[in-house]
Structure formats: structure tokens, C-alpha cells
Design goal:
Layout lengths: L1 H15 L33 H8 L4 E13 L6 E7 L2 E6 L15 E9 L6
Antiparallel strand pairs: 1-2, 1-4, 2-3
């Protein structure tokens, strides 16, 4: 009799448990794009990609352009220069005439729109 009571109570115990169902919910996270501007107000309109820049700059000494590109590195002391990733293992160093402008030191990894003259300058060692 004890065995039947134990068996019946075990069956009732397991029958009362709630099975967890595998429910998946799709979570959509909205990301707000925050644009911060430093320096002169430059619109994104007319900015070219790095691939277009390399094509336009090919065979020229200098080029006046507006470019949108990711920032690789920034001067750690003052932010007086930055390097921009041009793709294809190429970088461009951006300096500012007469130190009129400084880049935020935490700008590495963000995108920048730069406008001005691009030129090739080689320093021999």
C-alpha cells in the first residue's frame, strides 16, 4: 500500500509541474545615430567614399575634395592630426593648417567628413 501511495504521489507531483516551453522573442533594438560636429559646419552632401577618392586622386599631385572615412588614429597629446583609413592597406594623415583645429582625442574608430586639399608629401630619411 505504501508503494502505491508513493507511486501515485510521484505521478501527481510530476503531472503538476509546468513544462517550460522554448519561446523565442525577436528583440529589435533601435539605435539613435548621434552626429557631433567639431569645427566649421560641413554637410555630408557631395562627400565621396575612399574608393572614389583613390580613383580620382590617381596620377595627380593634389586634389580638392570632400571625403567621408573612418578615423584610425588621433594625436594623443593635442589632437593636432589624425589618420584616415583609405582601404587597401592605405592610410592618409590629416593635418590642419596653422593648428586652427584640433580633433577630439577619443575620435578613433568614428567616421569623419573632411574637406580640403589632399596632396602627396614624402619625407626622405
Amino acid at each position: 500500500m505504501k508503494k502505491i501511495f508513493f507511486l501515485a504521489s510521484t505521478i501527481v507531483f510530476f503531472a503538476c509541474t509546468n513544462e517550460q516551453q522554448n519561446q523565442t522573442q525577436e528583440v529589435v533594438e533601435e539605435v539613435e545615430v548621434v552626429i557631433t560636429k567639431h569645427g566649421e559646419d560641413i554637410s555630408e552632401e557631395g562627400a565621396i567614399t575612399t574608393a572614389e577618392f583613390l580613383t580620382q586622386f590617381e596620377g595627380k599631385d593634389s586634389l580638392y575634395t570632400k571625403l567621408i572615412a573612418p578615423i584610425n588614429e588621433v594625436c594623443a597629446k593635442k589632437g593636432c592630426w589624425m589618420t584616415i583609413n583609405l582601404g587597401e592597406d592605405k592610410e592618409m594623415r590629416v593635418r590642419f593648417k596653422d593648428y586652427d583645429f584640433f580633433v577630439p582625442k577619443d575620435a578613433a574608430g568614428k567616421f569623419a567628413i573632411v574637406q580640403g586639399f589632399a596632396k602627396i608629401d614624402t619625407t626622405s630619411i
